[in-house]
Amino acid sequence: MSIGQELLNVPFAEMVQKLALSVAESQTELDRHSTDVAKYMADQKIQLPDLSNPNGPPKEFSLVSMGFLPAFYAVQEAEIEVKMAISMTKQTEKAGSASVKGGWGPVAAQVNASYSSRYAYSQEGASRLTIKLAPADPPVLLQKYMEAVTQVMLKKEPVLTDDPDPEPAPAPVPDPSPPEPEKRQRKR
User: Fold this and answer.
1) Residue 159 carries which DSSP code?
2) Which contacts qualify for 92-101: CB closer than 8 Å, 24 or more apart?
3) How many CB atoms neighbour CB 28 within 10 A?
4) CA distances from 80 to 38, 130, 162 (A)
5) How far apart are CA 72 and CA 27, in angstroms?
6) Quick one: the chain helix, strand, coil %, rounded to 5?
7) What residues have CB less than 8 Å from 34, skipping those under 6 apart?
8) Contact in structure between 42 and 62 (CB atoms under 8 Å)
9) DSSP strands (E only) in 23-65
10) DSSP 124-139
11) Among residues 5, 46, 47, 174, which is most buried (max CB within 10 A)?
12) CA–CA distance, 104 with 10 (Å, rounded to integer)
């Protein structure tokens, strides 16, 4: 078997396919975990003092209504590296000797032949798989939903007595009439 044939026998297409499927499965699991965390944050309640009535009972809020977002991650890169070292050696040894004895009459011949072949085959391989994860924004609809939950919660039971994020006051509308010329006093 030749070294070239050995290199051709490496299942490269299969390795690429398995890498791609592994990345897709990993991304699905990352997303599933983040949505589980989002559900946990929606179910998890905390109690905070009522700022409008400090001596009254505390108010209960979900982590989602407080603006907590689960972390989302995305597979940014996936790299597979395969290294192979193949060596084959073949060694053949031939040796022989012959002797003949004879005269007039029958002849005796002695032949001593030896033949040996030795094959050596070694193969080494190494592979490395690298995956790069990066934080990703939560899905837009989830983020909008969480913002809507927060707005509904604030309308029902405001956390602060004053609006923490007031609408800006409208800019003054300029008077459309032309300005009056300034009157100058003469020095006398």
Assistant:
1) S
2) 92/116, 92/117, 92/118, 93/117, 93/118
3) 10
4) 33, 6, 57
5) 10
6) 30, 35, 35
7) 70, 71, 72, 73, 138
8) yes
9) 45-48, 59-62
10) EEEEEEEEEEEEEPPP
11) 46
12) 67
Report how far residue 2's alpha carbon sits from residue 112's, in angstroms, rounded to the nearest whole number.
34
Whether the Cβ atoms of residue 109 and residue 98 lie closer than 8 Å to each other:
yes
Is the torsion defined by CA of 6, 9, 12, 18 positive or negative? negative
Q: How far is CA 6 from the centre of its chain?
A: 32
| Joined tokens for residue 121 | 């085959």
AA identity, residue 15: M
pLDDT of residue 169: 47
Strands (E), 39-107: 45-48, 59-62, 72-101
Q: Token digits for 29?
A: 């699991």
**Range name among 84-93, 102-111, 124-133 with the lowest pLDDT average:** 102-111
**CA 128 to each of CA 16, 84, 188: distance values in angstroms, whole numbers, following the listed order:** 13, 12, 97
Predicted model pTM: 0.50
